[in-house]
């Protein structure tokens, strides 16, 4: 109530209470109260009427709420008014009028509800029921769009004569209206009764309250009496109509009980039957009084119809319709909104606004209705002057009767002729009977209906009819009183009373029964007033003002008087009486009696028993087909929209239509249950019922659970459809085509595993919980059908009790063929991917089979093809070359089916299918065929790729379409395959022809066909990869689901059991670890979409049976695999005969139709593949067959290997550390004890390596394709001398090596008994600085005497044992073993080539140095052969010559770049030099030395113990302890060496996270190169100046030459030495050099490659190689040669990264983080990659290259060439012969180098050549 009204009425209430108190008796006060009540009531009524009007003419939630609120305000007002009225002693008032007003004010009905919430709810419920009714639409009518009640359904019921269409419209209206409001109505009844009881005046229920309106205690009895009076007439009419309709529809459609099916009477409720008038018209040749055609012919408008009615009332001197009527009424149905179409007249309570709401149609029926509704308006107009409470009919029936009484005149032929709607007024006996028949179909037919509606409601209100039997009781009344029965069974899920407007609108209906009686009483009275004589049915009061005045007088009374008084005023009677109606119809009564004769006109009061009636069952089945067509089509459309455009909206629509489909199926299931269909004689009908009632999960009773189930499936499908995989390369892939293509084309096992896993992460894993809920709900649904679980329900489709066992048996029969195929494929895949990707159990990892699910393997055909040089039938490339499109591929398939005489695809197919993946939206790409259930719309959804595989898929999917088209005329339950597998088999059987080479030739996709056994095997193998490979997968998916549904597999083992089945049946295993956090079944579309899969297994077998039968029909002979049925109409006819059956017959019948067999038989499949199976048996031995069925593991050979390697790594770290610790202790403290400990550690390490190498042999690592794994195992098994089997020999070898190293380490040169020199630093210093030829000779010889000579025998033993050891590994000798580290078969020739390329530079340097040395020592000290005596080069081994820089420096007056003196002057010590080196590395962004380094390293020679001073870097294999051992002296050379050794430490630090075995350089040379490449920067004057160790100086060419000369003395001078040491050892190891020639071979090589010679005669008593640490220490040396080449490649790359420009020799990468990053990237690899890969990361090159070195030294090369212009280059390859006789008579030298004549002669040749060479150069100049 708005504030103004509330205030006014509150003031009214308070004033009366204050002034007068309770029990007011003053009549004047009562009058004042009534006056104020009328004023306020008008305001309230207008407001409520406006709100109700808005809702009824525009049904929206807003308007509903506004209407409810207005109703509540009106109720509040009424309640307050009643409360105030109760304060008056009104019963004591003598004025009847006032007393009656108070009585009516107090009669507030349900507004008396005390609970305001319930009052609001009552209004809400009523409005909702009206909304349901008004919004109701029926969409299932074939050929019709969605029909509302008005005018669509009303017109259809009135004009259509198709029994089933009428039944469908009748049934569906009740589904869309009454059924939907049953719960609301139950609530409504409760609230109504509570409200009436709250009224407090003694009513027991709402029915009693409504009857009170008629102010008669005998009202119910009076009604019964009236019905009894008219019953004979109704019975005669009923019998006649039934007989007539029986002739129209067939007597078999009418129950034997005498009832008429309710849908045949032309009206939705069988309330009036005038719409069947033309069917029952007594005299068909006579004119009809139905003027509908005339109205339309005269172009009547709705407005004209209302004006015609107005004119009738005006002719009686009644009122004109006010202008507001024409302005405000809704006379036609608007197009833009939903409305309540039920015709109604409205009084807005303000005495001026009156309206009609009607969806008028141009028909006579609506013309009559217009007069009826305008009669209500006339009543309003006439009594508008009455007090508000009297503005109503004398009783409710009066209001209805007024319009109807007008209609009795309006419908007469006389009146219709008067107003020009009937051409002539011919009224003979026959016309009269026709007219009365039409009137009776309206008036008499209605009476029992008008009576029974409120009989039903009153019983409901009383509680005699409970909600559990609402519909049953309804039909009991209708069958009893009307003699009609439902066309189909009704259940208590239905609520048929709600399909009649007045029930949901809470409009009492008995008024209409009353109206239909009294209107004839009124008619008779008005005819008398109009002075009409003659038969009552001919009376027309049109233009009679007398009749009008009489009527007006009655109308103006409203309800101010009891209705008997009003009746008496009108008719002279004070009771309702049927005499007038009987009089009206008396001619028809007599006529009907004559027509009906003595036949019984009664029907059974009980409804017919439909459950055993086959005709009713048939009708119901036909209705089911029509309904199902709409429902399934609608669901298919929604699903299609969703799957072709995945959006939240489309998902919601799909879920909702799915729910609607489930509701429909459940409803049909319950309706079917009303029939005893199992006892039907008709087998086909029985089968239809069986399929209709097998509704699966739709049987779920709980709507919320049903929605949860549907939403769950939709959500899972959505997860699947939207899934995208983000690959590690940054690419995002959907399943189609991205991932499918990747799985098909990639041969990268890691990439395949990544895609495989991530697809499952993005699909299955995300829906696991959903699937659990789905299983529970699915089982609950089917259990309501009597199935144990969903699996049993699914299997029921196959109509075979032992189906599960028969499938297992079928698989076992095919298993041998599968096993042979599996074994062959596994073997070929191992060759492709390496055995590391395969488990030992015999399984194939699932990701390697070319398909996301390993279901079909044809994508790996190319890598498994038996005969690669033979024809292949994959025509993908040909299709692409021929510019095939998706559309063309589909037309190709269409043409195949047309060639068989089958139908071509319809236009709808081409216009509506999705043949390619659309851009811009997400879709479900899984190929599928769609039946839209309207017999014309069939589609395919597919993301087609131009491949042969997709061409085959297209034929498969189009096979489904052909099946759809062939069985489209079957009843809906039979529109399916004979069993689910048949549907899949049809497309596949076509593919068997399409895939043949002969067919591909016919359609020009092959140029020729090679017909030989090898080509046959290729073809069959390809087919087997698709057909045979699939079989176990096709079986196991549903085996898993059946176990899940049965509970055998619980959620706790979903994934484990899934893989048990896959491993057992398929012999495939997961590529990665799986757990119960995963849900791998969900990664397969059919699982989340809840699509049974066993059909595909069945199809794979059945298709070969079909194929063989069709081939025979086509007259094909020869091998089954070569048959192509293309163009065979006979094969097509045979196929159609089976397809057209749909599922109307059990599948054995369908199978027999096409094959002559009645069971699934694999013999045709076996026959097809027999040539292949025979071939496979020859390729596979028995040991290769099968797999461990009970051992399912993702752990591959490679995984086991990796696990072993992880364990190895832990153990190796400990073992290597132990050995290194022992080596360190020994080399930093040479004692017998440390030597013994070292030997012990060596033996232990050797045992460890041998043990691990043996363990590694359990792995087939040599067949690993994984480079890292193979490399790792190679390194582990490549254990060198540790391979010795005999422990004693291992000890012996270790002792030998220790002895040699001990000899070396303890070596001293004693120039006198008092002066013995250690190698470092004493001998080093002497050789570096002394220029005394004799002293140098003595030291040179003394060192060799104290080292090499003493270990000669040791070395012989070492060679023997070392070779023996490596031969255990398969190497010929130790040299081959050492070279294996370089992973190149051409290594020896490669390094030889490098040396040759560098020889010119070395030779020029050699020539220049020799000249300068000769100037110091004299020519006589140099042999004529051109060699340089080895002891003069400033180094014990003449390996680097930088110590003679001061002698050979090109420009002596230039700044010295030897910073030794500076270091000493600045007080540098060893630690400072090491910190300087550290700072260089950290400036590059590399790591500082760990504290352990500083704590544990030996960086100076210790006092008091023997050590090995040779500088070396140490990795202790615990990722934290790194050391350098060095006897540092403060010199530039040591500073460079420190940088070099710290380079090793950086390498250690960078690769410390690699496995132990890969903690090494990419090859041995890399490790040496890393420190050296740093030295190239450190050595530059530029760098030395940066760090303050070199003063600023001129940067000119001479300084450059000096610097390059210094570098060349170190780098270039070293090259041949670095090369030859291992050349010598390799020749020793190989046996080419025997122990008798050790020293000779050594000097042969040195003389040949280095051009140096011994200063003294050497014999085989000597062992000069042993004077070099690396020989004594068993340390391969070629690494240094390699290092000296590649360091310049590294240097150039790092300089480029550091953005250095200018000459390469001036580059300093100090402080360049970019250079450091590039270096770090390579160092971190360790030896995990081959050295070319590591080289490529650093330099972009994959091979060793001398060009950067030559570029570096280019200025020096040019200078040397010029400097040596006149010099004699080179030397003889042979060493000079050294004579023992002294050449110096003074004996000032220990031995004089002399040469033999022969030697001089050879040198002479060289000399002559040199002279000639110089002359040539001069001439050229």
TrEMBL record:
Reactions this protein catalyses: Release of a C-terminal dipeptide, oligopeptide-|-Xaa-Yaa, when Xaa is not Pro, and Yaa is neither Asp nor Glu. Thus, conversion of angiotensin I to angiotensin II, with increase in vasoconstrictor activity, but no action on angiotensin II
Active-site residues from the entry: 373 (proton acceptor 1), 502 (proton donor 1), 957 (proton acceptor 2), 1086 (proton donor 2), 1541 (proton acceptor 1), 1541 (proton acceptor 2), 1670 (proton donor 1), 1670 (proton donor 2)
GO terms of molecular function: carboxypeptidase activity; metal ion binding; metallopeptidase activity; peptidyl-dipeptidase activity
Disulphide bond pairs: 341-359, 925-943, 1310-1316, 1509-1527, 1695-1707
PROSITE patterns assigned to the protein according to its UniProt record, in alphabetical order: PEPTIDASE_M2
Coiled-coil zones: none
Family, similarity comment: Belongs to the peptidase M2 family.
Lineage: Eukaryota, Metazoa, Spiralia, Lophotrochozoa, Mollusca
Keyword Endoplasmic reticulum: no
Enzymatic class: hydrolase
Alphabetized UniProt keyword annotations: Carboxypeptidase, Disulfide bond, Glycoprotein, Hydrolase, Metal-binding, Metalloprotease, Protease, Signal, Zinc
Signal peptide, first to last residue: 1-21
Binding site for Zn(2+) 1: 1540, 1544, 1568
Binding site for Zn(2+) 2: 1540, 1544, 1568
Cofactor(s) required for function per UniProt: Zn(2+)
Any one of the GO BP annotations: proteolysis
Protein name: Angiotensin-converting enzyme
EC number, UniProt record: 3.4.-.-
Pfam families linked to this entry: Peptidase_M2
Cellular component GO terms, alphabetical: plasma membrane
Organism for this UniProt entry: Potamilus streckersoni
Glycosylation: residue positions: 1229
InterPro entries listed in its UniProt record: Peptidase_M2
Binding site for chloride: 1382, 1679
